[in-house]
Amino acid sequence: MDRREYWESLYSEEYDTFTKYNVCGEDWFEQYTDGGRKIVDFISSLRAEYSGSDCSLLDLGCGNGQFLLLLDPTKFTKILGLDYSFSAIEMAKKMGDKQNSPIDWLQADVFSLPLRVKDGNWTIIHDKGTLDAIELQGRELVCGYVQVVVDLLAPNGYFIVTSCNKTLDELVSILHGKLSFYRNLSYPSFRFGGQEGAVLVTAAFMK
Ligand SMILES: C[S@@+](CC[C@H](N)C(=O)[O-])C[C@H]1O[C@@H](n2cnc3c(N)ncnc32)[C@H](O)[C@@H]1O
User: Fold this and answer.
1) Res 26 pLDDT > 90
2) Ligand 1 midpoint to CA 156 (Å)
3) Which residues have C-beta atoms less than 6 Å from ligand 1?
4) 180 CA to middle of ligand 1, Å?
5) Helices H, strands E: what count in the chain?
6) Number of domains the chain contains
7) Secondary element (H or E) of residue 184
8) Is residue 78 left, alpha or beta, with left meaning phi > 0 and alpha meaning psi from -120 to 50?
9) Which residues are in the Methyltransferase domain (predicted)?
10) Mean pLDDT score of the chain, rounded to an integer?
11) What is the domain extent for residue 202?
């Protein structure tokens, strides 16, 4: 099974469970992020610091959309969640409709985006687990993905990325010369083999 089929089958099961029993699926890393709220607060603080009046947000690989639905949409001029899994986006649409949410949803591959996304000049690009998922498809894809993010971001815009596979130093190195490190969120750390590591990294980079 390739990676795309894997995500499709996972979200298709979630979608069935949601339609039958009204049970939401997984918001990734929710056990470390207080159900996503730590990252919502992180985004809100960056939003408050952003001096421009218009602030748009694009979530690359939004999954079932649960995370985006935690944000206060009135703080953004537009929010778009996209994912290449058809079932993930169907589920996001259903949950969004239930909340009367103004968030837009789109089924699309980050490597083949329609013009309306490419021309978005996005203020904030959010990624929770998508860089990790893309790396699993092929390490060589990471460079291309970073370029997609850089091209989509508006000047002074933020890329906010959460990874369970990378350290902060590794993220800084991947984005070196393209985006500058701005700030990160702290998570519990552990010691292993004489080294200290965090369970998760969330960091904001600026264009
Ligand atoms: C670990 S999940 C995270 C989902 C969501 N961000 C969350 O935090 O719950 C990774 C997501 O990336 C999506 N994804 C992976 N590669 C993608 C690609 N090339 N284009 C669009 N979505 C992709 C998968 O379908 C999956 O929903």
Assistant:
1) no
2) 25
3) 7, 27-28, 61-63, 67, 83-85, 88, 109-111, 128-130, 133-134
4) 24
5) 7, 9
6) 1
7) strand 180-185
8) beta
9) 53-183
10) 94
11) 4-206
Hunting for tokens 């902060």 — which residue is that?
168
Give the DSSP H or E segment for 183: strand 180-185
The model's pTM: 0.95
Model confidence at 1, pLDDT cuts 50, 70, 90, reads low
CATH number reported for the structural domain that contains residue 25 in this entry: 3.40.50.150
Q: Whose CA is nearest to atom 7 of ligand 1?
A: 28
Can you tell me which atom of ligand 1 is nearest the CA of 162? 8
- Which among 84, 107, 164 is the best mutation to test ligand 1's pocket, defined by most ligand atoms within 8 Å of the CB? 84
- For residue 9, how far is its CA from the centre of ligand 1 (angstroms)? 13
